[in-house]
């Protein structure tokens, strides 16, 4: 009896996720799987397991919610970049390989169905939504800067052609990667991802196994 009461007190003392956090955590998957346009507030709150009224208590609009979800998704992407692109124990070209391989593992686990939330949201973004457009610009700029930093390191190591501008290469990488994931979603096949990596590591990136 004493042990049971102790466990109960312990559980009650543990911090519990707020309803807002539950909506955000579930919302990343909801928008990824259903899409921005198709996911209504009812679907979002049902997936989060919270009352529908909680949504309007925490978010002014669906667009404001989408901005928050993009931030959370970007945080997750940055964590992957910390383990790969920014891992200075690896050669720069290997950092690029590690990043694309880790994302590929996730894409495979999702059955090649969902691609990148940033790319998906860019296609679905309402024409009139300036706040969402500006936020997507900021996220894409941040991703490009992360790639550019690794490209510069690779150029200094003689692993990427020095006759190319690092920012141009980074922009190309992000655009091509997003395109490969879009085609992957259509085909439900890893082939576009494999083609992207083969061409990248056989042309722009040198001294790295093209596989």
What's the CATH superfamily of the largest domain, by name?
Tetracycline Repressor, domain 2
Please give the CATH class of the largest domain. Mainly Alpha
Radius of gyration, in angstroms, nearest whole number: 20 Å
Distance between the termini: 61 Å
Count of DSSP strands: 0
CATH topology of the largest domain: Tetracycline Repressor, domain 2
Give the rounded overall mean pLDDT: 88
Shape: elongated
Count of separate DSSP helical elements = 10
Share in helix: over 70%
Which structural class fits the helix and strand makeup? mainly alpha
Question: What characteristics describe this protein?
Answer:
211 residues; mainly alpha; Arc Repressor Mutant, subunit A; Tetracycline Repressor, domain 2; 2 domains; 10 helices; 72% helix; 0% strand; elongated; disordered N terminus; DNA-binding; TetR/AcrR family transcriptional repressor of nem operon; Tet_transcr_reg_TetR-rel_C_sf; transcription
Structural overview:
This protein is mostly helical. It has 2 domains: 1-59, Homeodomain-like (Arc Repressor Mutant, subunit A), CATH 1.10.10.60; 70-210, Tetracycline Repressor, domain 2 (Orthogonal Bundle), CATH 1.10.357. Helix content is 72%, strand content 0%. The chain is built from 10 helices and no strands. The chain has helices at 2-13, 19-34, 41-48, 53-58, 62-83, 92-109, 117-124, 130-156, 166-187, 191-203. The protein is elongated, with a radius of gyration of 20 Å. The protein starts with a helix and ends in an 8-residue tail after the last helix. This is TetR/AcrR family transcriptional repressor of nem operon. It comes from Rhizobium leguminosarum. Residues 17-77 form the HTH tetR-type domain.
